Amino acid sequence: MTECIIMRGLPGSGKSHKARRLQQTGREVAEQYVILSADDWFIDTATSEYLFDFTQLKPAHRAVRKAARRCLEAGVSIIVDNTHSRRAEWGAVRNIASGLGVPVREVMPSNWWSWDVRECYLRGAHGCPEEKIQQMKERWETWNVLTD
């Protein structure tokens, strides 16, 4: 059965690790999950280096939404691995899935540091500034939370 999992969490909270675990678990029960992430937009294909450019954030999110629609229409389950701190960020993918009759599930990391801004900053893979992580935490909007 096709499913849409929307990962939510601060940068460095363990979203990508958990997304990969969910993808692996899906493979173990013969389900295919494709991980979609705006972060992939910023990886230099020649060097594999992460080169974030704020001016490209909107196109990156549009590309994720387009890929989400394509996958779901083809019957492929997806895991959307972005911060999704506000409804405006997760709502578009949720609406695409709902419009196609695909169940949507929110998943958040439940590590001891998931809401510790300093620890997320130290663990983050992409160098997101600590102040930016704090801003994301302060603007966080809730949804029905499913943790592990």
Write the layout of secondary structure elements.
Blueprint: E1 4-7, H1 15-28, E2 33-36, H2 57-73, E3 77-81, H3 87-99, E4 104-107, H4 117-123, H5 130-138
Helix pairs in contact: 2-3, 4-5
CA(first)-CA(last) distance: 21 Å
Broad CATH class: Alpha Beta
- Proportion of β residues? 5-15%
Helix % is 40-55%
SS-based class: alpha/beta
| Low-pLDDT sequence parts | none
How are the strands of the biggest sheet laid out side by side? 2-3-1-4
The DSSP helix count reads: 5
The tally of strands reads: 4
How many whole angstroms does the radius of gyration measure? 15 Å
CATH architecture: 3-Layer(aba) Sandwich
Output the helix-strand order: EHEHEHEHH
The biggest beta sheet reads: 4 strands, parallel
Q: What are the defining features of this structure?
A:
11% strand, alpha/beta, 41% helix, globular, 4 strands, single chain, 5 helices, 148 residues, Rossmann fold, four-stranded parallel sheet
Q: Can you walk through the features of this model?
A:
By secondary structure, the protein is an alpha/beta fold. The protein has a single domain, classed as P-loop containing nucleotide triphosphate hydrolases (Rossmann fold). 41% of the residues lie in helices and 11% in strands. The chain has a four-stranded parallel beta sheet with strand order 2-3-1-4, with helices on both faces. Strand 2, helix 2 and strand 3 (77-81) form a beta-alpha-beta unit. The radius of gyration is 15 Å and the shape is globular. The model has no long low-confidence stretch (mean pLDDT 90).
Quick recap:
The chain is an alpha/beta fold and 148 residues long.
